[in-house]
Amino acid sequence: MTLFLAGEPDADALISKDPLALLIGMVLDQQVPLEKAFKSPFDLRERLGGTLDVASLAAMDPDELATIFSERPALHRFPKSMAGRVQELCALIVDSYGGDAAAIWNSAADGKELLANVKALPGFGEQKARIFVALLGKQLGVRPPGWEKAAGQFGEAGSFRSVADIHSPETLAKVRQFKQKMKAQAKPKGASGPAKAKAKAKVATKR
Question: Are 133 and 115 in contact (CB under 8 A)?
Answer without folding.
Answer: yes
